[in-house]
Design brief:
By secondary structure, this protein is an alpha+beta fold. It has four helices and four strands; from the N terminus they run αββββααα. The chain has one domain. It has a four-stranded antiparallel sheet. GO terms for molecular function: zinc ion binding.
Length: 114
Amino acid sequence: MSSQQLSAVPETVPQGIARADLEPRTKRALEEAMAVSLLEKGGCYEVQSASGNWYEVDVAEETCTCPDWEYRTPEGGCKHLRRVDVELKLGRVPRPDGRLPDQARTSLNQQRSP
């Protein structure tokens, strides 16, 4: 397991949306301290919650090993799935193919160059 430090997501909410208006799981995904790291290529991540529990999130299959996902399968995913999505969009964790966000941009730019 990773020893990555727990961190909260920066105060970034899409414009026009108040934090109070967010769905509760999305709000917790943004506000709670969690550590997210790529577990294996293909989209498997490990997430450590503020509680200290570790969960495996598969973004390709859209699954999580947490009790919320296993017993309720909430529409839009549990807070762990949502947090991985946010971390990916912010470029703070490697993409599912294992490349770091900067590597992906560099590779894409090289493909576009004549």
